Amino acid sequence: MPNPVRPAAFVLAAALTLIGCGAQVESPGDRESGSAAAGGHYPVTVENCGEKKTYDKAPQRVVTNDVGITEIMFALGLEDHMAGYVMPDDKGDLTSVPWKDGYERTTWLSKGTINKELVLDARADLVFAGWNYGFNEGEGFTPAELRRVGIDSYLLSESCRNGQGKARGVMAPLDALYTDLRNLGRIFDVEDRAGTLIASFREEVAAAQAKAAKGSDRPRVFLYDDGRDKPFTSGAYAGPHDIITKAGGDHIMKDLEDSWTTVGWETVIDRDPEVIVINNYGDTSSGQKLRFLKSYKPLAGVSAIKNDRIVVLDYVDLVESPRNPAAISSLAAELRDLTS
């Protein structure tokens, strides 16, 4: 899903102070790497969505938007650096997640839409969000707007725009996850923790791939997010692409050079998916989505519908998040069971 979440004197003071993280955008002639100063960790420089940014110290009051982004922070053990998180309450059961303690230790700032007033009230020094994961020109909430009031931004790498209008995606989805873990590890001086996570995730993905179907045995898979007139789905740069392909599926929308986007039902029917994965979130339940797919007459001849090969994964499994590797293992098992 591309859009997962639905005081003048103070603003002036914030704009003058550039509080907290001390991030500076690098010009082409500036320092190319964040070498440690005088034996210390800082300053450090990372590249985020094509922009080099230098941090003189770790941000202390981060506001995150949406569940996957929030759990990236939790997976790195960075709760003490957070002012809180924003997300609607349709993201599944948060009491049994791997990072339950993170939710218990961090403030749920809003179940609505993130905005400038909210992050100012939270005294944020950095907002970790993404294009259509909180940042949106239509809502007037952008990194440029935050910069004007002295608040830095870190963009979710899955959401990086690629220069083709507002299309998103500049790297493979799992590479986006590893890039963000690596960058945040440097920004917050937890590089060892980030490296350990990345290594464990790579190992889990490799183990799932070793058991997954290959070549012509791979079933054709379609990701259904929502939509009746036109389905909303994943292109090559959103999480489901890597989740599907590394689990042993052939992602039928792999030629779409975008992250989350809309296609026509005609394209889905023509590519005849053998398995459909439903994204479970939002006001429309996975059960309602399933009933629609089974009752929509143009889909009656599609292999996945005829053979009742439907898989449900939660939203946080499918957007960029530290749950992606486990989702690959889970889907790989489902695909083996459905196609054996």
UniProtKB/TrEMBL annotation:
It comes from the Bacteria. Residues 61-340 form the Fe/B12 periplasmic-binding domain. Residues 1-23 form the signal peptide. Keywords: Signal. Belongs to the bacterial solute-binding protein 8 family. This is ABC transporter substrate-binding protein.
